[in-house]
Amino acid sequence: MPPDPDAGLSDAEKAEIDRKLLWKLDLKLIPWLCFLYLISFLDRTNIGNAKIDGMTDDLGMSPGDYTASLSIFFVSYALCEPITNVLLKKLRPSIFIPIIMILWGIVMVTMGLCHNFAGMATARWFLGMAEAGLFPGVNYYLSCWYKRSEFGIRAAIFFSAAAVAGSFGGLLAAAIALMDGIGGKHGWAWIFILEGLATVVAGVASYWMVYDFPDLATFLSDEDRSRVIRRLKEDQQSSAEHEEFKMSYFWASVKDWKTWAFAIIYMGADGALYAFSLFLPTIIKGMNPQYSPTTANLMSVPPYAAAAILTVFIGWLADRTKQRGLCNIGTVFIGIIGFSMLLGSGDPHVQYAAVFLGALGIYPCISNTISWASNNVEGVYKRGVTLGFVIGWGNLNGVVSSNIYQTKDSPRFFPGHGVVLGYMTVFLLGGSVVTTILLRKENRARQNGKRDYLAEGKTQQEIEMLGDMRPDFMYTV
């Protein structure tokens, strides 16, 4: 524990200093990271906007070619995610994040220069590799700055950028598509080219805008650095400090049942998320074939905006109540009702209302599940590996999501809606219920002293190195 720079001050004075420190961290860390994720989500899902603007016809892609180009992204994305947090820790955030952003921005530009399916599929493969490090990396990074009771709302604000991206993406795509014919390029090609160039610029700027971990961050004074590390240690965390990578941390994550429990929950949320975000314009257009591509893109904006608001609210509520499992369970019922309505009614008005409920039931569960997993895993590298596995497995289910909305099933898309409903009911809802019960059971065992033997004969430092296996570590349920 570093020395206390506020020793001798009253509790009220310490609370005021802590409030100002937290506000300083929020202003330095959150806005730019949200902007980066907005760009990331925009770049991986804008292919849906490009599709309804004529991309598949111009490239001679069949419906199967289109779904294959979606699927290949998730394969490379999921395969690379488990190792990205190790690279983030070794290379430092201010180096790692700009590198991957510049790379995926270049890949985005090449997507606008493709002439056939082979070129698009290749570009999507490399886009998945380059983007793999951002989402798990930033969640891991933020978990090394904030207390467990503070992390949820920050993760929710960060992830709400995905919902904003869906909203903003529809507007942006509708505007850029008007460039059709300029430079001999179709409107859909300009969507990829301009958004890719913007990503490269943001990546270069990130070298100065992304800060390193608390033990190296340049914007912290020595006193503030001590305060950040002390408040994390008081929260039973050591994630802000330097730690050398050992394979034992990797295997500790692999052998921990929580890694796989949260992976199951997250696959339920992520599988639904990608199906929704990749095909929402197509679903809306299917409600009324008379809708133009621009109208379908614009009508996708309000559901995303509503989802962004609820995502932040659920993040705040889960932090206040420390009941992340119950927040997942309550929220997913909204989505279950929405997709049940999509299956049960062909009325365009009912379907559009159902799309809102679907968005509200999916998006908040993504950030809440990540926060829940992060809260319950301690140790610098173990947490990083666990988040990589959880998010990687969830994204691998994007392969399923990419193939369930087939053109031949238009306009009702029964198979697609049914698969999403199954994901939400079995994996997201069922997984959340089972995990909540198991975590409560483990907390009772620790409170009753049934895990005290794990600390017997160990020094204080050795006990701390047990991470979330410490007998006094209480899980967030």
Number of domains: 1
CATH class: Mainly Alpha
Number-wise, the strands total 0
Element pattern in H and E: HHHHHHHHHHHHHHHHHHH
Shape: globular
What fraction of residues sit in β-strands?
A: under 5%
The first-to-last residue Cα distance is 28 Å
> CATH homologous superfamily name?
MFS general substrate transporter like domains
The averaged pLDDT comes out at: 89
Radius of gyration: 23 Å
Looking at the structure, the CATH topology is Growth Hormone, Chain: A
Largest sheet features = none
Helix content: over 70%
Structure overview:
This protein has 477 residues and is mainly α. It has one domain (12-469): Growth Hormone, Chain: A, CATH 1.20.1250.20. The protein has helices at 11-52, 55-58, 63-91, 93-111, 117-131, 134-143, 148-176, 187-209, 222-234, 247-254, 257-287, 293-299, 301-321, 324-344, 348-375, 380-396, 398-401, 414-447, 460-464. The protein is globular. 52% of the residues are buried. Residues 29-443 form the Major facilitator superfamily (MFS) profile domain.
Observed structural traits:
477 residues; mainly alpha; Growth Hormone, Chain: A; 19 helices; 75% helix; globular; MFS_trans_sf; MFS nicotinic acid transporter-like protein Tna1; transmembrane transporter activity
Concise summary:
The protein has 477 residues and is mainly alpha-helical. 75% of the residues lie in helices and 0% in strands. It has a single domain (12-469), classed as Growth Hormone, Chain: A (Up-down Bundle), CATH 1.20.1250.20.
